[in-house]
Amino acid sequence: MDKNIKLALLGGDARQCYLARELAARGFETAVWGLGKEFDIDKAVKCRDAGSAIDSASAVVLPLPASLDGISVNCSDPDSDKLKLLTFLDYTEVPIFGGRLGESFRLSASARKKHVIDYFESETLQIKNATPTAEGAIYLAMQNMKKTLFGSRVAVVGYGRIGRMLSCLLAK
Q1: Which of 32, 56, 106, 159 has the highest local Cβ count within 10 Å?
Q2: HSE toward the beta carbon, residue 13, CA cutoff 13 A
Q3: What does pTM read for this prediction?
Q4: Three-state DSSP class for residue 31
Q5: How far is the CA of 115 from the CAs of 3, 21, 101, 136, in angstroms?
Q6: Does the structure show a pLDDT above 80 at 57?
Q7: Are 44 and 23 in contact (CB under 8 A)?
Q8: In this structure, are strands 45-46 and 6-10 parallel, antiparallel, or unpaired?
Q9: Which residues, other chains included, contact 114 with Cβ-Cβ below 8 Å and sequence gap of 6+?
Q10: Is the Cβ–Cβ distance between 116 and 106 less than 8 Å?
């Protein structure tokens, strides 16, 4: 595998931070923008602006979800200027990977002949993502309840990947 390539990771949360550290540890030049100061990216390079991260990159990796509002890249750094998804498409000619890319973004990318891959369409990733999502739901319930979950009667609405995992966790 050619490790003389630069990967630009834009926005995200702890998952994007983990990816940046892992890629840098494996010898890839990794440029990061839009992650909060609380994240330690180890050998990856933290960039002041998205353009610096994207410059000479071989691919761009957006977070999961790529956007919370359908307009801007999802960033955990409150000091980062909002990077508009559609404007961002004009910055680069390299492949763009992102999670839960909106239909509008995909159509705009296609019209601009950009190579876009939604990695969240992977069934394997969705199954693996169900566990932390279910655990997050339990965490939120615990924060908002005046009593413990143990012994509580709980209804899980929906029985997809997350609903099944949540039911298993709550049944224990």
Answers
A1: 32
A2: 7
A3: 0.85
A4: strand
A5: 21, 25, 13, 32
A6: yes
A7: yes
A8: unpaired
A9: 89, 92, 93, 96
A10: yes
